[in-house]
Design a protein that fits this description.
about 350 residues, 15 helices, globular, alpha/beta, Rossmann fold
């Protein structure tokens, strides 16, 4: 039922920017208002799965105080940290599939209906919840309509709109937002052991965990994408070959780079004193003409985000990426290439 090797499964610590969400749940528990289901939503890279894991660990912990944080020392915490607590269940899409199937949800429902193995609460984490098929969501809805006593269901998603309204309505929403830039930079500095490059958080859209993931490859990504766009705009590589270069492993990072690049274009177009983008001086971004149409630019961003959403599902990518690249070429002009 659970995908192996998920590093979030054994984490019992909250991240610094999770404090507000933790305090909200502490108040709900103190008032006897903790629901049977929570919808943990927020952008990619803010640690939603780690929050879910830490929350689950705190709920089964027998040594914690008033704060909703696991003690890390009791027998329950030892089991949680080892990823083997019998009352904590992870429901994820298999590595070879893009969806969570109805049979997986039914198996989870059967487990939650059983008596607690450790005589405490039972917690199930479904992630990413938006990857459940329609039948799987309907099956989970039946479980929520008649929840077993002492159970908590955590739905983790970056796309709440892809979850059935009837399912969302039975969950209390907990928003996990991006931290402010100073907090994100401080955390990254600790994790990396040095001050992160100025552009790293921009490339990750302000999401610290995404920035940490991109950190080892950021310079290589800049070089790759600048070269790819330069070849495409100059006509040395056609749209089909360019799309093929973008697809495959690393596609999410390349799409994030494009969104960041378009954001740089927008700032240069709208703000005369915009902070210069920290790419090489001969990079494609530096050579795009100021006559780029701002309306077209925002349209490109919207369609890029839609493409990212579709590519996360079952839609094939070649034609989708090609279509976007054709629109890109029609919206920007490169100095020294097309006059």
């Amino acid at each position: 039922m659970s995908a192996p090797g998920n590093p979030a499964r054994s984490r019992i610590e909250l991240l610094p920017w999770h404090a507000a969400a933790r305090e909200r749940l502490e108040a709900a528990i103190a008032g006897g208002r903790l629901p049977h289901a929570l919808l943990l939503q927020g952008p990619v890279g803010v640690g939603k799965e780690q929050f879910a894991a830490a929350l689950a660990a705190a709920l089964v912990c027998t040594g914690r105080g008033e704060r909703l944080e696991a003690c890390g020392a009791c027998a329950e915490c030892m089991l949680t940290r080892a990823g083997s607590h019998p009352d904590l269940h992870w429901l994820q899409r298999p590595e070879d599939r893009k969806t969570i199937a109805v049979d997986q949800v039914r198996e989870l429902a059967e487990r939650l209906a059983m008596t607690s193995m450790r005589r405490g609460p039972r917690v199930a984490i479904v992630t990413p919840a938006h990857s459940m098929t329609l039948n799987a969501q309907n099956a989970l809805l039946k479980t929520l309509e008649e929840p077993a006593s002492g159970t908590l269901l955590l739905l983790v998603t970056s796309r709440p709109s892809a979850i059935l309204p009837t399912l969302r309505s039975r969950c209390q929403r907990i928003e996990l937002a991006r931290p402010d830039a100073d907090l994100a930079r401080a955390w990254l500095t600790t994790e990396l052991g040095s001050e992160p490059p100025a552009r790293l958080l921009e490339l990750a859209h302000g999401a610290p965990l995404r920035a940490l993931e991109l950190a080892p490859h950021a310079a290589e990504l800049d070089t790759q994408m600048c070269g790819l766009l330069d070849s495409y705009f100059s006509g040395r590589r056609d749209v089909t070959a360019t799309a093929e270069d973008m697809l495959g492993d690393g596609l999410p990072a390349r799409l994030d780079w494009l969104e960041s690049w378009l954001g740089g274009l927008a700032r240069r177009r709208l703000l005369a004193d915009a902070t210069p983008v920290t790419l090489p001086e001969d990079a494609v971004l530096q050579r795009v003409g100021s006559e780029v149409n701002i309306t077209a630019l925002f349209g490109l961003v919207d369609r890029l985000r839609e493409a990212k959403r579709l590519l996360d599902g079952s839609v094939g990518g070649q034609l989708l990426v090609e279509s976007w690249l054709v629109e890109l070429a029609g919206s920007v002009r490169l100095k020294g290439v097309d006059g």
